[in-house]
Amino acid sequence: MKLHCQIEVINRLHSTLNIRSSGKYLKSTLALIKEPKSEAEYSLLLFSTVNKTGTKYRVKSVKQMFIKFINEGKATIRFEEPPHDLCIKCEHIQLKCFVKLLRSCITGDTKSINLAKLSSVAVTHKESPTKLVIRDRSAFPNKGFPRTLESLTISGLNLCNFRRDILLLKQLVVLDLSNNVIEHIPPEFGNMPNLAELNLANNKLGVKGVIDWRWLLRLQVKNKLKLLDLGGNELKYLPKSIWKLQSLVTLKVDNNLLEHLPNTIGRMNNLRYLTIALNKLTSLPCSMLQLHLDYIDLSNNKLNDRDTEQSKMLKSNPWEMYVNSLVDIAARVVVKQKITYAPNTIPWTLVEYLDDANSCVCGEPVMNKEHYSFKEYQLKYYAHVVVSDENRKGTVSFLCYYCSPKCM
User: Fold this and answer.
1) Within the chain, which residue ranges are assigned CATH 3.80.10.10?
2) Which phi and psi angles does 20 have, rounded to 5°?
3) If phi over 0 gives left and psi between -120 and 50 gives alpha, with beta otherwise, what is residue 53?
4) PIF1/LRR1 pleckstrin homology domain location, by residue (predicted)?
5) How far is Cα 145 from Cα 151, in angstroms, rounded to an integer?
6) Long-range Cβ pairs for the range 112-119 (8 Å, 24+)
7) What mean pLDDT do residues 250-274 have?
8) What does the alpha-carbon distance between residue 14 and residue 49 come to, in Å, rounded to a whole number?
9) Using CA atoms, how far apart are residues 371 and 403, in angstroms rounded to an integer?
10) pLDDT > 70: percent of the chain
11) What fold characterizes domain 129-235?
């Protein structure tokens, strides 16, 4: 059996000499073979792009196997002689099968196992595909997607449903499903451990009005995703929970039906590129003034249609701002201190309440929605590059909330 994976070989003698390992994983193939001279002896043959001749390890020399993180596709095989540790990264299902087979060889339970002999095992390393582009239905692989894929493009095929076999690609970093007619993304998609770029442009995610955004709440996506393209999906709103994509650098939501942006967008500290062109926006949330954008495109919206005379306080008594409930005070502390919260730690109603927090022009969180006004700001002071319609004043209307009379 052959296992295509990434392996780091650690020589334990180096630690006694205070020599650190490189920490680099190499694309490798690990083959479990039968010795030609003895039917009861088995060996592991390791070869890679660096070691093309191969290194042989006897199965009898296996001292210990560390499989605590096998569900994450990680395992370590420790040999007594030579004193090497093979640190393996691989697709977890294939790794489980390989470990099970290796364990059978160690215990001697090999009656139903048929392994190739050393003479029939090629020692040349076969490059596993890491990139696949599909623009025609006939290009789909007959045996399914290679588990080693790091980049997958399935574009322009009018796919109606999300292909669930994509969920098995644990090494996937870039996924492009643009120019299809996909209406739903399954919640399990949020468990993709290495996904950094996701292109869902020109699909139909918003065609039914109600969208299942649960995949955004999964821990893996929140920590890894850096680029998200949702352009051309007929979206009428973005979820308030989008701020939890704390690693997101680029957000594209062009050519949708958005009339407003969530106030929580100002909590996306790493956001640098934002494109919101071709929507129906009449104002922007003042929380965006806290972002450090390098580029923003807000052309072809309705940001200049608002009458500035309508920009007035709806509540005229400023002293009411100083009276807050205990829930409001506690919520402001949680938001300001960036304390982590989730539905599994606090009730869902509190999660929605915290996600609904606004931001004052000074940056302080605001839970009271009664004190607000519309103000004009020049975006050139808040972003390096601004793409907008011709506007003689060069200003954009912002919906501003206030935490105290001093900020009015």
Assistant:
1) 129-235
2) -80, 150
3) alpha
4) 1-114
5) 11
6) 115/1, 115/32, 115/33, 115/34, 115/42, 116/31, 116/33, 116/34, 117/33, 117/34, 117/35, 117/36, 118/33, 118/34, 118/35, 118/36, 118/43, 118/45, 119/36
7) 94
8) 23
9) 8
10) 89
11) 3.80.10
Structure tokens at 59: 């199965």
Q: Which positions ≥6 away from 300 have C-beta within 8 Å?
A: 277, 278, 279, 389
Question: Which part of the chain has CATH 2.30.29.180?
Answer: 2-120
* 111's tokens: 């009656």
Going by C-alpha positions, the residue among 116, 117, 144 that lies closest to residue 132 is 144
Check residue 341 and give its pLDDT.
Answer: 87
Confidence of residue 312 (pLDDT cuts 50, 70, 90): very low
pLDDT of residue 123: 46
- Give the CA distances from residue 341 to residues 187, 253, 331, 366, 398, in Å, rounded to whole numbers and listed in that order: 19, 26, 11, 18, 28
Tell me what pLDDT residue 104 has.
Answer: 86
pLDDT (tens digit per residue) in 122-143 = 444 456 688 999 999 988 998 8
C-alpha span between 236 and 259 (Å, rounded): 7
Q: How far is 82 from 408, CA to CA, in rounded Å? A: 73
**Residue 255 to residue 231: CA distance in whole angstroms:** 6
pLDDT for the residue 4? 86
CATH number of 2-120: 2.30.29.180
Question: Degrees (nearest 5) of the Cα angle 69, 41, 81?
Answer: 60
Query: Token pair for residue 166?
Result: 């994509």
Longest dimension (CA), the chain: 93
Our CA dihedral for 32, 38, 41, 46, rounded to 10 degrees, sits at -30
223 contacts 217 by C-beta, under 8 angstroms = no
Indicate whether 403 pLDDT > 90: no
User: Contact 98/1 with Cβ under 8 angstroms?
Assistant: yes
Residue 323 CA to residue 368 CA, distance in Å, equals 10
Count Cβ atoms within 10 A of the Cβ of residue 249 and give its class: 0-12 exposed, 13-18 middle, 19 or more buried.
Answer: middle
Residue listed under structure tokens 């606090």:
346
The Cα 10–Cα 25 span in angstroms is 11
